[in-house]
Please model this.
Amino acid sequence: MRKRWGLLLTILILGGLFFLPGVQKILPQIIATSQTTVAQAAKHFNLQFPLVGSQEAADATPIEPIVKPHTLKRTYYYRFDHEIPDKMAATFEQAIAVYNETGIVDLVAGDADEHQNAITFFSYSKRMPEQQADYLELGKGGPEIIEVTGIQGYIANHARAGLNRKYPESIKLSVALHEIGHAIGLDHSQSRRSVMYPLDQGKTQLSAGDLKALRSMYQTD
Model:
């Protein structure tokens, strides 16, 4: 009995040595086929798998296209339009404090010259049409990139951010954060963690994706 087991073991070892190069050769193909099959199945059944890096990509906050090619200075000088209500100005001030706490940008009250980044805060009144009654425009904002080339060239962002005074829902910290985000270069995000999600989620803190996007845009002075 022991001799039979020994003979069988010898045959298995020799067989393994004989077939091992072949197995090593086709193993990458087997793995590749398995990955392709899984990907095809996921696509067919509309499934999502926790692939490495997928969550980070999903949480990423895009950058406004006109800002993306540039690196901006971190300091902004801001002013309030003379028609802006006090409550709205106070809400913007709260949002300014949140951005300043990041240490990535520095929003300072005052008038900027043409070489410096600037934000003008304003209010406007816009009622949505009846056919769009389920959608309220709470605010609007965006960057305006000024680029001058040459020996004394410079790049500056002369941005604007406003809230719609027609709706009380607009005077919220989360909405002000969103519009300032647009002004300094953040675009709409697909992540509900982000203050840049197109619909107001009541978020009052910047997400990891928001912070990463800001760091990619701003240099230290």
